[in-house]
Amino acid sequence: MRLCVALDMASREENLALASELKGLDLWLKVGLRSYLRDGAKFIEELKGLGNFKIFLDLKLYDIPNTMADAAEVVSKIGVDMINVHASAGERAMKTVMDRLAGLGSRPLVLAVSALTSFSESEFDAVYNDTIARAVRKFSQMSFEAGLDGMVCSVFESKFIKDVTNEKFITLCPGIRPFGESAGDQKRVANLVSAKQEGSDFIVVGRPIYENANPREICERILVNI
Questions:
Q1: pLDDT of 167-204, one tens digit each?
Q2: Is 130 annotated in the active site?
Q3: Which of 135, 139, 173, 196 lies most in the core, judged by the most C-beta atoms within 10 Å?
Q4: pLDDT for 224
Q5: For a pLDDT cut of 70, what percent of the chain falls above it?
Q6: Catalytic site residue 60?
Q7: What positions constitute the catalytic site (predicted)?
Q8: Which of 39, 48, 58, 149 is catalytic?
Q9: 89: closest CA among 11, 133, 38, 148?
Q10: Bridge-partner residues for 167, per DSSP?
Q11: pTM of the entire structure?
């Protein structure tokens, strides 16, 4: 299991300061929509210049197939190590993305978002007219068939996804509260014990790290536990 630290703070300077504090640790950094829209590709270069970090660019691409492929190609060329798309864009869109990226010399890992961890069961049903479990099964199988590398999902779907696809199909799990911290705006959260039991390959941790008085220390505690 690998730790991915979410750089979700309000300014570029705060995010860079956090990354600097974590230099030398064996972890990934997640750059989300707000940070990328504000700070752009140059921010990715700055992070890579700080140390040997792997970068997950969390933009959740969702559009018509060719536009998704265009966007995936552009962000792949800036040197990120993992990107994601929405599985609900459909199998044709995901295949179009993977076909496009196959033409590059090297490509990032590509994961699909199943159900956002902020969704409750009733909220998910109001949008998708389905249960989370049934939709995750469908989205996961579709993504696997399209040639993606894995899924973004809650911890509670990780083992299930591997059962309906392949043990090597990556699961990246946000909504992690490593030592029982507050859930905040997440609905389906889990701790490190659950993440390990459910076979999560990556865990994404944000607030419990950057709101801690000593972010490096909490990262070290997490790394020891995983």
A1: 999 999 998 888 764 545 445 568 899 999 999 999 99
A2: no
A3: 173
A4: 94
A5: 96
A6: yes
A7: 58, 60, 63
A8: 58
A9: 148
A10: none
A11: 0.93
The residue to which tokens 């944000």 are assigned: 206
Residue 201 labeled ligand binder: no
For this structure, is 26 an active site residue?
no
Q: Which two tokens stand for residue 159?
A: 């083992």
The pLDDT of residue 140 is 97
Find the catalytic residue in 42, 48, 54, 60: 60
Per CATH, the homologous superfamily of domain 2-225 is: Aldolase class I (3.20.20.70)
Domain boundaries along the sequence of the chain: 2-225
d(CA 133, CA 3): 25
For the chain, the C-alpha Rg in angstroms (whole number) is 17
User: Structure tokens of 41?
Assistant: 């590709």
User: Residue 219: which of 22, 9, 48 has the closest Cα?
Assistant: 22
Residue 178 assigned to a binding site: no
Between CA 212 and CA 186 the distance in angstroms is 18
Q: Is 60 known to sit in a ligand binding site?
A: yes
Better-scored residue on pLDDT, 187 or 24: 24
Phi then psi for 100, rounded to 5 degrees?
-65, -45
The whole-angstrom separation of Cα 189 and Cα 154 is 7
Tens of pLDDT along 85-137? 999 999 999 999 999 999 998 999 999 999 887 888 999 999 999 999 999 99
pLDDT for res 180: 65
